[in-house]
Amino acid sequence: MNYYNRIQKSIDFIEENLLKDITLSLAASQAYCSLYHYHRIFHSMVGYTVKDYIRKRRLSCAAEELFNSNIKVIDIALKYQYKTHASFTRAFVDEVGISPKEYRKHKKKPYNFDRVNIYSNIYKSLLKESLVGPQIISKSEFNVIGFELRTSKTDEMDFKRIPMFWNKFFNSNLGNKIPNKIYPDTYLGYSCDFDEQGNYTYLICSEVEESTTPPRGLVKKIIPASRYATFNVKGPLPENLISTWRYVYNTWLPKSGLELIDNTDFEELNMERINKDIPEVTIYIPIK
HTH araC/xylS-type domain: from which residue to which, for each copy (predicted)? Predict the structure, then answer.
């Protein structure tokens, strides 16, 4: 089953269970993906995080019932997994712009957020794109030490916070605080520890000697041995980097015939390459 089919299967599962409590782990299992890779691929293909997609679909269905029925607001709220009238009203106002009561009263154009079909025209056009072939390499297990940021894919918060994190890292010369670096001018951006809410940890780190103890305030991780598909990203950063991440999971991976493994991806920044007129970054995607 290819990745388009996997994500569509999870979307179908979400649709069938909008009236139930949907855990992200269970949704990910429908796509035969780890929670980490499921977040990445779903967001790239659908354009929303899993959490945001579920919220929008529930509110869309709730809006339809408000528009076309006389069911009490609290009953609609409970039906679509909101525990209180107040929490439903807050979510509805944030999404639609007016309260459920006002929405029902004024009977204006209905709010609608349609169920996504991966094979709609926008995704069919992506299938026609030419495949950019990466280089396939193998890396042994290695150790990293660095600084961590807890962020989220909700509302693409990570696309805003991670570039700021890198700016702080370089402007404050935080790289100098990482001991025993094997490659002094090379830094990695490593994502890990996803949770059910779409939150995860982003680590700016360097490869270090195995016996190194992290200083206070820094963390150490072991990156397992793996094969990787690597993509070189050139041009304005972070714009081209963000676009390439989307391309990898949205277009290249489903067409490649390759399978991800339960390991995380990361990006590699070499200072010599970053400081060129046209900066370069390398993305590593773990594969079988």
Answer: 8-106
Average pLDDT over residues 36-64: 91
Quickly count: other Cβ atoms within 10 Å of residue 18's Cβ: 17
User: What ranges in the chain are assigned the alpha helix state H?
Assistant: 3-16, 24-30, 35-46, 50-68, 73-79, 85-96, 100-106, 121-127, 157-171, 239-247, 253-256, 271-274
Helix or strand or coil: residue 127? helix
**Distance (Å, rounded) from C-alpha 60 to C-alpha 38?**
23
Residue of 182, 199, 200, 183 whose CA lies nearest to 191: 200
**Residue ranges per domain, the chain?**
3-106, 135-287
Task: Please check whether residue 247 is in contact with residue 253, taking contact to mean a CB–CB distance below 8 angstroms.
Answer: no
The CATH number of the domain covering residues in 3-106: 1.10.10.60
Statement: residue 261 has pLDDT above 70: yes
Q: What is the mean pLDDT of residues 45-59?
A: 92
pTM: 0.69
Closest CA to 252 of 97, 120, 135: 135
Block residue for tokens 């900066």:
279
236 preceded by cis ω (within 30°)?
A: no
Q: Which CATH class is domain 135-287?
A: alpha beta
